[in-house]
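Hi support team,

I'm opening this ticket because the web form for multi-chain structure prediction keeps timing out on my end. I have pasted the exact lines I submitted so you can reproduce it. The total is 1021 residues across three entries, so I didn't expect it to be a heavy job. Is there a limit I'm missing, or should I split the entries? Thanks in advance, R.K.
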Amino acid sequence: MSFLIGADLVGGYGGPDILRGCAIAAERGEITVVVGPNGAGKSTAMRALFGMLTLRSGSVHLGDEDITALAPQARARKGMGFVPQTDNVFRSMTVEENLEMGAFVRDDDISGTLDEVYGLFPALRDKRRQPAGELSGGQRQQVAIGRALMNRPRALMLDEPSAGVSPIVTHELFERILDIAQSGVAVLIVEQNARQALELADKGYVLVQGRNRFTGTGEMLLANPEVRKSFLGG
Amino acid sequence: MSDARVPFSVRVAQALRTPRKPVLFAAMAALICLVGAGQSWSLALTILNLCLISAVMTLGVNIQWGYAGLFNAGVMGFVALGGLAGVLVSMPPVRAAWHAGGAGVVLALAMALVTIAAAVLVYRRMRQPAYRKLAVALVVAAGYFAARGLFEPAVRAIEAVDPSRTGYLGGFGLPVVLSWFVGGALAAGAAWAAGKISLGLRADYLAIATLGISEIIVAFLKYEEWLSRGVKNVTGLPRPVPYEVDLQATVWFREWAASLGASPVDLSSIVVKLCYAGLFALVLVVLMWLAEAALRSPWGRMMRAIRDNETAAEAMGKDVTARHLQVFVMGSAVVGIAGAMLATLDGQFTPTTYHPLRFTFLVWVMVIVGGSGNNWGAVLGGFLVWYVWVEAEPMGLWLMDFLTSPLAADNPLRIHLIDSAAHMRLVVMGLVLLLVLRFAPRGLIPEERR
Amino acid sequence: MQDVVNAVVLLTNFLVVPATAYGCQLALGALGVTLVYGVLRFSNFAHGEIMAFGAMVTILFTWLLRHWGVTLGPLPTALLALPAGMAVTAGLCLLTDRWVFRFYRRTRAQPVMLLVVSVGVMFVLNGVIRFVIGPADRVFTDGARFLFTVREFKAWTGLSEGLAVKTTQTLSLVVAVVLVAALFWFLEKTRTGKSMRAFSDNEDLALLSGINPERVVAVTWLIVGCLAAVAGTLYGLDKSFKPFTFLSLLLPIFAAAIVGGLGNPLGAIVGGFVVAFSEVLLTYPYRKFLAYLGPEGWRPDGLVQFLSTDYKFAVSFFILVVVLLVKPTGIFSGRSS
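Hello R.K., no limit was hit. The queue was backed up. Here is the completed structure from your submission:
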């Protein structure tokens, strides 16, 4: 059984359902990527996994536990991390304060984790006294991911980490995400930038209109002519 | 909906057919009659007249809040401007004062206008932004001191003219009813300036800017004696209705009083108040008709659309800020009319009586209690809340007296409580506002969903 | 040379000293407004009344202390009563939040609704204050009136111009500095303070990080209550306590908060001083000052005053207008939307 499972997710933001029974599962130590056209419900599915919208039906499991009814804060305490697509740093606070806020629910010593994050993103160590709002897009994204890592999540979800970031920086960012997954975290990424994301995916989902269309390893999906034609631009 | 073409009378009938409104308005009428029967008819009419004026104010605020969701925290200022209009229109001009300093004041005002024009011109013509701001600042400063140089001696001269009786320029000596229009216009002008500055920014800024403007307007009226006599007050505004003494002096009136078996003094007071009530009711009906017509027109639909979803309206190409400015100016004009009516009823202009709790925030309670977005509700709120405001004082006193009756008459606590009972009505008003917002946020007569 | 020194002393006495004291009082008031705005996202029209309430409670405790014969020697007894005033006011804020504001927060009402609600709270508090202590003017300053008087200053310096500093003015400065330092230490260094800043900066992300919003809100009200009580008491000590004046104080306080950038604590402090100094600078008559600087025996004709003191509230308004026109986010870029 997978580590993080969202099964038969149905729901939306009060209007018509955006999710119509999609299912997503992520393994520890692996990268799972969700791709799909605009409006397919990718980000909504991720928000549903984190409890940020009320599901009409379906369930979410983390480990052996049913967390369907938990509030986002409670899920954070259970070891889930979430990096939103936009507004994902505290702009007026320094880099280090951002990271400290990521560890807000922890009561133990966080200096070890802080070192790990600085090890992963060395640029942040130099800028740790700077307000996060003054950083470049790529570094801000690093702060955002670092903030989520500070809680030592067992499952980390990233909503379009490549949005607004140059291709080179994206490549760099994906390398780090790979490192994170290899440390035993279940990583789930929603990406518009499908090809690059699928290249490093252990498993990929193609969502269309709130339902699963294709599922497979990253390589399989990249090789599938139908997926290539419809979602990867040939 | 072709509602706009349905005659007003028919719509009144329609409106009254929905059960809630007539019941509530009838209850209101009964409450006023209760005062008439229990206390005195003269008092009941006094309350009625102020209810009518409050209803006009509430209508104005409802246009802003109910139609467009704008929070105007400066109602007091617009009411006060209406009062000033009463003075400027109806009082006779003070020739000596005009002679002493009229020219100077007019010149100073002209100088101010020239300064503004020059500043605008400089701003438009200059290209270099760095120098531009400096140049505008210099022009404004120079103009300010030039205008003040003209202004101050003129003001001193005016205020020296028989200060115990006049000491100001006086008005135009026109019928006081005209001031109702002028009051609306003055308030509209002030609202335009306030709205230009603060609309389009967040809602809180409008609230704070209007709060500021109203404080300044009242300060202006208090201290610019050459214009309004300031804290020396202007009394004896001409009336639009007959004077009691004149009525009592006429033969037919005395005969009529005799035939009714009433004393001419009492009857004259009631007749005068009824005349006022008739005039005020006429204004209220006309404004109500206009407000309802506006609400039902495509314009009104658009305003509600903007209020309910500003972003969507903006996306559809509506100029939200311009619409808001429009509605803000209209609402304030109505408040200004009410202010002029109030000065007319009082027969005097006393700047010190303008207090934000009474003239800004109490009007808000009226709107919220009545039902924001519904003109009928706003009018009812104006009536009911004013009634409660007036009657809460004797009621509170009586209640406090009753509650403390176990204590000795000279018990300091009892004396303090009875002395302070009047302040309880503020608490009551606040609680009413909070309870209505919490448990009946749509008010007594909710907005109709069209 | 002597004339220049005299001119400076004159300006210090009538301008710098009172404006500093007033600036401290405004800054503390604006801090409360800005904190509520940053965390709860509405302009609290009841803030003036909360200040008045705090001052009132302090006055009541001052009377009680004096009744028991307790005084603070040269310092106002009110200083001893102030902690009680702060505690009661903080409690009042928590209760109002519990009974009134929390409901609208949970239903995610629009900020302007909360503004209207705060008007209701304003009414109730205004009534309660008048009911308890009455609408009259209350002077509750005791102890030594001056840190040093004009006569003492003249004796020390031999100048013809005097300088006096009132105890209450010194107190305003000292208390404000201590309180602001403590507040900034709290916001910058403690975990709770940082979580407050985080919540004010980005509510959604704060929730994602597991920050408990109810706790942040409660801590905010606690601080706001304390600040308001101190601001109200200092203002009352320096001038006098009159329930009505606090409603008029709302305008300069809001102006200060907006000028500095709503939601920005540092901005509120700077804004407080900007408003206070502008008010005093523009309404001060410079006649005597210029006479010292000009040639011997010369005096300007008029008062050389930019605005009559009657219009001191207009100054805060004009500053507000300029800021709204030029930079709506304020000097320190608070929130504008």
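A quick check on our side: Residues 264-296 of chain B form the longest helix (33 residues). Let us know if the file doesn't open in your viewer.
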